[in-house]
Amino acid sequence: MADRRRLVAEARATIARGSKSFRTASRLFDRETRERAWLLYAWCRACDDLADGQTLGHDARAGVDGAAAIALMRARTAAVLAGEEVGDMPFDALGLVARECSIPHAFIQDHLQGFALDAEGWRPRTEHDLLTYCYHVAGAVGCMMAVLMGVDANDTDTLDRASDLGIAFQLANIARDVGADHAAGRCYLPVSWLDEHGLCEDGLMEPASRAELAILAARLDALAAVYEDSARVGARRLPFRSRWAVLSAAGIYGAIAREVARRGPAAWDERVRIGKPDKLRHMIAAWREAGRPAAAAVVARTGLWTRRVRADPVLPPSASADEHPPKRPTAPSISPDAAHGGSRS
Questions:
Q1: For the chain, which residues make up each domain, given as ranges?
Q2: Which of 124, 179, 271, 300 has its CA at 20 to 30 Å from residue 172's CA atom?
Q3: Topology of the domain comprising 4-306+326-340
Q4: What is the pLDDT of residue 296?
Q5: pLDDT above 50 for 43
């Protein structure tokens, strides 16, 4: 089997270059959880780079064959989950951490589906579609991270709240990156939202559109806050070090969404960043919150988007074209099966 120490070292180097915010939060975990988080991150980063033709999230290449990229990541993922080594660090890292923590393969499938949606140029039509997409690209990762932190795979409510945190993170990312996504030919704002405000995707970044666009950014911020609040309930159930790390990340990403909303029409003049002093402030606040006694009452998730709990089939090496939602021109809503796992992979 692949040498664990080598995989961990390479995964650590990947996160050091690929994500300052996640690297900062990961330092708060105990050593075992921290290393496992690095291993999982390396796979997520590799899949994202394959899908977008990037290197550690930068220097995107034009003309990427999305279908081929998805097929490759599915095949390598299936191989390592079957116990094979593929000689590709991020995928071998996933195989290792999946074995160590018994990560349900359904979460891995769900995350891969997010890359498939992007590769097909899919667009959300409704808020439900938006939240479904956020689950695939980030909420499923939240579920995997919860398992790494010791959450039982049958603890549905805590896993749902872990998914909520990923959804909150992704809503913050979408708000921050509207301009960058537009430049790359993408838009994650629901068609129904754009229609309500008289906006069209092509002219989204025009000066005349900025005031209405700022209203939508504030809407994303408010939506992210609801899911963040739910996630904080789940964080109370984690060991102290994990609770501290999760609450720190929640504070940092929440600050991104709030800052985008605060800047209004100027939010996309330059990329919103949370500096080191502010990150430290959020980490101190999270440490204090993590040390408080857990509340006895469970706050219901009434009205929140919820993943469908399903069986955990073996991940196949590829998926046929009819297992994915239609492409961009029709801007379809995701069907219930496609949204929650159905027959898509």
A1: 4-306+326-340
A2: 300
A3: Farnesyl Diphosphate Synthase (1.10.600)
A4: 54
A5: yes
